[in-house]
Structure formats: C-alpha cells, structure tokens
Q: What sequence folds into this?
DNA sequence: GTGTATATTGAATTTAAATTCAACGAATAC
DNA sequence: GTATTCGTTGAATTTAAATTCAATATACAC
C-alpha cells in the first residue's frame, strides 16, 4: 500500500470515528481529544490530517453530501422508474431503519446531515449540508403518487418537508438510544397516503 | 414594585431571552454576551442572576418542565374526559402550530425541551428535561383510541414515541425558519389513525 | 546505508468564552 | 441625610479546549 493510500485510509478512519462521536455525543460535546483517543492516535496528529475541528465536520458533511448524491442519482435512474412511489419511499424507510442496526455509519450520516442543516452548527458545514436537497427529489415522487391517486392532496414540497422532518425526528430518537426497531414504516407512509 | 419582585421579573426576562436565543442559534452558539446584549444588560450582571450558563439552561428547562406539568395535569382532568382521543391530540397539534406564530416562547419551549432531552447537551439539563414524560400520557390516549377502534394497532408507547419524535422534527424545522404554516395536523394524525 | 520526507507524539501555546471582581450608582432603611 | 444593601458595569482573570510546535521515529528514495 502506497503512502498516499495509507493517508487516505487514515483520513477516512478519522472521519468515521468523528461521525460516530458527533452523533453519539453531539458536535460540541465531542472534544478533539475524544476523537483522537477513539481513533487511537495522539491529539496533535489530528491536525496533520485536518486543519481544525470545523474543517473535520465539514469534511464529514462533504462525504455525506457525496454519498447522498450518488444514492439519489442512482435511485433516480433505476428504481424510481419502475417502483410505485409509495413502494419506493417505503423501501427507503425500511432500508434506513435496517441500517440503524446493521450499518450504523450510514444511519449516523443521515442523522448528522439533518442536524447540521439546522441552526447551532458551524456555518460552513451548515451551508454544505444545505446544498444537499432531498426535498425537491421527494416532492417529485409525491407528485407522481398524487397523480396516481394514492397520495393525499397538498403542496408536494410541504408534504416532503413534513415527511423528512418526521423521519429526522425519529432517527434522532433512535440515535439517542431508544429502541425503535419495531416502528412500522407504514406509520410514516400514512402521512402521505390518501384516506 | 418591591425589590424582590423586580428581581424575579428580571430573572424571567433573562430566561425568556435565553430560551429564544437557544432555539434560534443553539445553546453552544449562544454566548453569555449575546444573551446579556439581547437583554440589554452587562455581561457581568448575568452572573448576579445565574450561577453559570449551564445553570441558566437548567432553569429554562425547569420552567419548561413546570409548564408542561401544569398543562398536562390540567388537560388530564378537563378535556381528556370529554373529547375523543383523536380530536384531543389534533387540537393539541393545531394549538402548537398556532403558537409557532402567536406565542413563540411556548413553541420555543417545546422545541428546546425536546432538544435538551437528546445527546449533546449538558447532563444536568438533560436529566431535568427527561423527567418530563409526555410519552406515558400520550400512550394512554392512544390506548383509548385503539379501544374505540379509531387508532391503528401497535404498542401505544412506541406509537407515542414515534408521534412525538415526528412532531419534534417538524417543530425544529419550523424553528429553523421554514414556513410550515400550511401543514395540516391531519397529516400527523394519520400516523395514528386506523386504515 | 545515507539522506529526505512524512508520520507521530505530547507538552507548550493560544484563544475564545465563561466567570470573577473591584469600583461605582441607586434604592431603601433608619 | 447618612448608612447599608443591592444592582450594575466592564475590565481583568480563569479555564477548557483547540491549535501549534519542536523533537523523535519511521518509511521511502537513491
């Protein structure tokens, strides 16, 4: 393994460690020292890999943004054409709740991205997180469902915002340690369905 | 006005100012200086009224806890007896969304209480916020609705947790400045309703 | 094998923000 | 109207945590 690869790997390891701690204890309660310790390295070394704590958060968010983009563009072409809107969204939820246990980092990334978008986080990271727009994409799906008569009436963007805000709320509850394994995705889908 | 009253009033003014800033900018991004400025007083004076920033947060939370207790015990006796469970919960949501515009502090208090319960906040305040339990209370209402056949099947506590987590998510989105005035409480009620 | 560059450490420094404090002003008591 | 207590200020101090740095170890190039 070349030195550059080694470095890349180390960076990623730090990013992952930071991600998990940020979600577990919150950005401000996570000290650089904590991350260093969790990643088994000295405090000083952290700054060999990242300029500052803020930059570290920013990089985590950028990684999340990339992942989201990849995910949604992949979804855009493949499944979305075939699957009915409700099935598509529901399978997304099912997947995400599954990840909460099996792929905590994917789950944590979603939680963090949502948190950083809101107030009370360093501006730079916030902006980066806001770039990622899942509303427009979801609104499109909802619109489709409305045309098919399976989703309720209402501004698709507003419904999408409401839907994701609810998902975010639930995922944060999960991240906070509550065992919500048995939540039925259908409960959330009901928010969108007609009748 | 006696001196004691004066002091009490000042304390409350600080608590309100802090509450609003905490929700607007987040606890950690809110500097004691910011609160002092917003409350038109010197930085030092803040410490005449509160031991520390943490204690200030704790007091805000205690105030919230009191309010919640008063509210829910009042509700317990009055409305809950008469109103059908779905009507009761829906009117609560309607009320709360209304408050977002007309009584921002009530709304902000709810948002803050929810935030403080989660990770990433000073431990003391977190504990105090966790004392307040709206889950048990809501679960009771949900159970009632299930017996009447108007709410869906499922563990009432889990449904309650899911319901409040969603409400929290939406309220945070509102607090973050998004205009969600037109959200229909029915969208959230659908999470609980049968069919 | 020698020299150069990169990785690593942990203690020293800096920094931003909380907190203290000495001094002044205003209200109340007597 | 003087004394005493409380309210108030803003600059000085402390503190916790981020950040830098000089020193050392390790890997790579030649």
A:
């Amino acid at each position: 393994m070349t030195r550059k690869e080694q470095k890349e790997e180390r960076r990623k390891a730090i990013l992952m460690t930071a991600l998990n701690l940020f979600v577990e204890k919150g950005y401000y309660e996570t000290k650089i020292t904590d991350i260093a310790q969790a990643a088994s390295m000295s405090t000083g070394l952290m700054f060999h890999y990242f300029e500052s704590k803020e930059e570290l958060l920013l990089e985590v968010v950028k990684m999340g943004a990339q992942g989201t983009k990849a995910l949604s563009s992949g979804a855009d072409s493949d499944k979305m054409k075939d699957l009915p809107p409700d099935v598509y969204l529901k399978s997304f939820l099912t997947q995400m709740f599954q990840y909460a246990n099996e792929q905590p980092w994917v789950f944590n990334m979603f939680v963090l991205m949502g948190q950083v978008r809101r107030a009370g986080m360093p501006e730079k990271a916030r902006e980066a997180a806001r770039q990622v727009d899942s509303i427009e994409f979801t609104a499109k799906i909802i619109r489709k469902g409305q045309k098919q008569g399976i989703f309720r009436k209402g501004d698709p963007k507003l419904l999408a915002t409401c839907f994701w805000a609810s998902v975010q709320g639930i995922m944060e509850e999960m991240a906070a340690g509550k065992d919500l394994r048995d939540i039925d995705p259908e409960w959330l889908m009901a928010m969108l369905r007609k009748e």
Chain B has a mean pLDDT of 93. DSSP finds eleven helices and no strands in chain B. Residues 3, 6-7, 10, 41-45, 48 of chain B lie near DNA strand D (CB under 10 Å from a C1'). Residues 53-77 of chain B form the longest helix (25 residues).
